[in-house]
Amino acid sequence: MFRNQYDTDVTAWSPAGRLFQVEYAMEAVKQGSACVGLCSQNHVVLASVNKAASELSSHQRKVFRVADHAGVALAGLTADGRVLSRFLRNECINHSFVYEAPLPVSRLALRLADKAQVCTQRSWKRPYGVGLLVAGLDETGAHLYYNCPSGNYFEYQAFAIGSRSQAAKTFLERRFNGYKDYTPEQLIKDALSAIKETLQGEKLTSSNCTVAIVGRKDDGTVEPFELIDARRIQEIIDSMEAAEAAPTEPSSMQEDRGSDAAPMDI
């Protein structure tokens, strides 16, 4: 039996129990620009690659604020991502109006998953071709969720989606055990390092990446979701490059001193 007999309708199951239209939507996520999320006990950092369609165009925005306590980063079809981020924003506004409290992040991810799953049950709809990293802060702490087009969602300590995201995942898997105790500055540095892993031969600068953070300060006040200024990002990148170059300097200086030293008497 041929695959194309079962991939014209999202509600048609293949004999192997697969929904090919959903798999195609998940493939669109893999083709999108990379996004990274890292979560500590009180902070969540989102980072994305700014990819332009051509040299003459500007890049599309990949990180969106949903509420003061939550935001999303997306990979895949940006148009679908804007629709879903607007849906999340309305959900947060409605919940805050009715209950006078912010919507918990777990419930926010659940409502997004329910909306995506409906598109896998209606023959006149198609799955959303976008994956979202949902970052937020509530009474139980900071949380990071990944919502995929199939309607599934998972909570992560650190995760990466999009093009060449496997390199970023490998980097995060080596370090995620210590993220719970990381400071916001350390989270930002690791997020930029993970984004750097997805760039093939391209230099990491503040112009080709976007970083956002949300969390709770030491005094208990909430630090609202905000995009980090490009100047601060560039300063962090410069400090990272300087730290990488620092270990090579003492060894070279030591070699120079050794060449100038007088031979030992034997």
Automatic annotation (TrEMBL):
GO CC annotation: cytoplasm; nucleus; proteasome core complex, alpha-subunit complex
Compositionally biased intervals (Low complexity): 242-253
Domain spans labelled Proteasome alpha-type subunits: 6-28
Entry keyword annotation includes Iron: no
Origin superkingdom: Eukaryota
UniProt main location, coarse: cytoplasm
Functional description taken from the UniProt entry: The proteasome is a multicatalytic proteinase complex which is characterized by its ability to cleave peptides with Arg, Phe, Tyr, Leu, and Glu adjacent to the leaving group at neutral or slightly basic pH. The proteasome has an ATP-dependent proteolytic activity.
UniProt similarity note: Belongs to the peptidase T1A family.
Complexes and interactors: The 26S proteasome consists of a 20S proteasome core and two 19S regulatory subunits. The 20S proteasome core is composed of 28 subunits that are arranged in four stacked rings, resulting in a barrel-shaped structure. The two end rings are each formed by seven alpha subunits, and the two central rings are each formed by seven beta subunits. The catalytic chamber with the active sites is on the inside of the barrel.
Stated name of the protein: Proteasome subunit alpha type
